[in-house]
Backbone:
């Protein structure tokens, strides 16, 4: 086996490994972020027709009460609920002991008799038996309209009416005013009663919550049952309140059943199969119909990265309930792919992405309809992006498409215009505004994946940029030649559905290498001076050939994109400097020269655009040397040059057809006749 075949096999294996890794990685990342909570994928509302086929119960499930009814009934139950409070007997005991001690120490001198002491002991015991709460707790009980509480004394719980409970302030006022006839309030105030009044009831949260749970556990959430095999609703039937409750109950039960580990594993397997099948179909499409994208890592990476990005963002938004997915500019995906690749691939990628994203949503069908419509309009309206105004127009059309399709969908599904969802139209406008960010994002995509957009090509074709301006000053003849070639090539590209802006920009730069040695090229010579007279044919040939390598160096220095460099290397292909080659052979009959000294480094053209430029370059240069410009001479020149290039096999490696070549010939003949048409001579005024 040769070294070449070994190398080829090795690279094929690497290529296969890369594609396998990008496929597995994309599927794994998308599935990882997809939501795996339960779903009930039916859209329904009261007093509206059922849009789907007959729905039968596949398992027994209870008919749950409406949420409003549940809340009302539970609130009614909890209104009679009695919270638990713990009685602390030590508070009363400590307060009475402190009162006795203070009486012996200093209260004897304040109160007139020991009757005051006995009165205070009785009243303190009375309020402590009723119960003293903190002010906050008492206010909360009154706010909750609790009629009574349960007071836990040791292991016994006794009911106590709320209106018999005291706060510290209430207890203080009660003791002061209990018997004003026999015990003077002004004297009692001097006894610092607040020191003997402290809360002896504390809220028992654990016992209260346990009791509340027991009460709610006994509550019946259902008011009926649906048996397996029972018909729930059929297509066209109106969803009344009873049917609505049954459907809501089915939805809740479906979600509850899907939350088991076994169900989640089955869902995970289903998601892997679903995403994997679509991504595999996408790779088969690329392999069958877009082999050049499939073999180029930059193209493949861009397509898979965009698909993965939109699927992951959609899943995150749905899982975490972040905004609404309709604000996400899905039409940006086909626009980016259309700008860098082609319309068919843009639509296929968009369709695959939307179908994968749809499984994250509760109502996937309307999402698919809206996004596919918007994507088609975006692709159709933006075939080549070169100006910001084009993107603005596309954004307006996308918004209108969303609005029109959604309005039509609502008219089909709704039977009342007052129930139309106005908020959706706001989301569509936000979507259109976010779509405008495609323009700055193109630069990021270019640098990341190695593409060149039309925007960049338009900027490069501006003759006021530094490199082209220098070219017009140092090699004006070459500059004029490049301008003519650009016009010829762009017109031909338009006729055979090639990229006209790309070939125009490539034509402007294809001869920049001539700036290094301008006088060695006839279009820049003046005064009859020809420096080739001092060189032999091999040396002259090498000087002429060097404009390709010099052009590449200038392109590198000025950071020109790879697609432009490819025009520099391929515009002569592996052709020969025929003037010097034939001259050498004529002077050395019977001898064979070193052909590499007369051959351009190449390679031959490998795209339609490069083939067009090679033809345009040769035809335009040769047309300048015609002795006369007639329809016949121009036609013969074009046929001779292009037929010679075809015969020498320059176009074997590029996807251009004989029909395309015939069209290009016709365009060149037409344009050259217009350029070199004979002008009429103006008559002079006779004196």
Residues:
């Amino acid at each position: 086996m040769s070294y070449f075949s070994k190398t080829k096999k090795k690279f094929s294996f690497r290529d296969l490994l890369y594609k396998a890794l990008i496929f597995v990685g994309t599927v794994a990342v998308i599935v990882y972020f997809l939501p795996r909570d339960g779903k009930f994928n039916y859209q329904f509302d009261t007093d509206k027709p059922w849009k789907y086929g007959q729905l039968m119960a596949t398992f027994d499930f209870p008919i749950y009460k409406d949420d409003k009814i549940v809340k009302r009934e539970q609130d009614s139950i909890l209104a009679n609920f009695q919270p638990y409070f713990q009685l602390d007997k030590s508070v009363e005991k400590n307060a009475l002991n402190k009162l006795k001690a203070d009486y012996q120490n200093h209260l004897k001198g304040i109160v007139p008799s020991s009757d005051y002491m006995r009165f205070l002991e009785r009243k303190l015991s009375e309020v402590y038996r009723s119960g003293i709460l903190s002010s906050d707790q008492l206010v909360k009980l009154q706010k909750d309209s609790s009629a009574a509480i349960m007071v836990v004394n040791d292991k016994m719980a006794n009911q106590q009416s709320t209106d018999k409970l005291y706060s510290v302030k209430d207890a203080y006022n009660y003791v002061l005013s209990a018997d004003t006839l026999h015990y003077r309030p002004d004297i009692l105030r001097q006894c610092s009663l607040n020191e003997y009044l402290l809360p002896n009831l504390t809220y028992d949260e654990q016992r209260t919550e346990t009791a509340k749970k027991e009460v709610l556990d006994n509550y019946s959430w259902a008011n009926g049952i649906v048996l397996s095999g029972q018909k729930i609703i059929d297509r066209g039937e109106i969803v009344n309140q009873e049917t609505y409750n049954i459907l809501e109950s089915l939805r809740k039960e479906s979600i509850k059943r899907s939350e088991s580990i076994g169900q989640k594993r089955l869902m995970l397997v289903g998601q892997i199969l679903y995403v994997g099948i679509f991504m595999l179909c996408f790779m088969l499409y690329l392999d069958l119909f877009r082999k050049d994208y499939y073999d180029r890592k930059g193209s493949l990476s861009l397509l898979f990265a965009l698909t993965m990005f939109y699927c992951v963002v959609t899943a995150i938004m749905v899982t975490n309930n972040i905004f609404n997915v309709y604000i996400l500019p899905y039409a940006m995906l086909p626009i980016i792919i259309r700008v860098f690749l082609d319309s068919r691939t843009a639509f296929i990628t968009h369709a695959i992405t939307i179908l994968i994203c749809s499984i994250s949503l509760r109502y996937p069908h309307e999402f698919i309809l809206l996004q596919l419509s918007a994507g088609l309009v975006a692709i159709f309206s933006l075939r080549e992006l070169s100006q910001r105004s084009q993107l603005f127009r596309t954004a307006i059309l996308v918004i209108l498409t969303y609005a029109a399709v959604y309005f039509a969908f609502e008219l089909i599904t709704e039977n009342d215009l007052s129930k139309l969802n106005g908020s959706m139209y706001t989301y569509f406008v936000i979507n259109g505004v976010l779509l405008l960010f495609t323009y700055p994002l193109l630069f990021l995509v270019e640098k990341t994946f190695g593409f060149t957009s039309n925007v960049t090509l338009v900027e490069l074709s501006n003759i006021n940029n530094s490199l082209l301006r220098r070219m017009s000053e140092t090699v004006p003849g070459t500059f004029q030649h490049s301008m003519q070639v650009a016009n010829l090539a762009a017109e031909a590209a338009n006729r055979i559905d090639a990229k006209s802006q790309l070939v125009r920009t490539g034509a402007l730069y294809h001869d920049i290498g001539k700036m290094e040695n301008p006088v060695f090229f006839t279009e820049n010579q003046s005064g009859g001076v020809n420096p080739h007279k001092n060189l032999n044919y091999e040396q002259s040939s090498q000087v002429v050939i060097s404009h390709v390598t010099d052009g590449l160096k200038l392109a590198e220095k000025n950071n020109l994109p790879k697609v432009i460099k490819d025009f520099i290397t391929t515009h002569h292909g592996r052709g020969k400097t025929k003037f010097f080659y034939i001259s050498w052979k004529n002077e050395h009959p019977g001898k064979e020269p070193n052909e590499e000294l007369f051959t351009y480094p190449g390679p031959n053209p490998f795209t339609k655009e490069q083939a067009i430029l090679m033809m345009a370059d040769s035809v335009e240069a040769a047309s300048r040397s015609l002795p006369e410009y007639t329809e016949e001479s121009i036609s013969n020149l074009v046929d001779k040059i292009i037929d010679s290039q075809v015969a020498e096999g320059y176009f074997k490696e590029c996807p251009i057809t004989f029909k395309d070549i015939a069209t290009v010939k016709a365009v060149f003949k037409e344009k050259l006749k217009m350029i070199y048409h004979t002008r009429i001579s103006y008559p002079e005024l006779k004196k």
Summary: The mean pLDDT is 86.
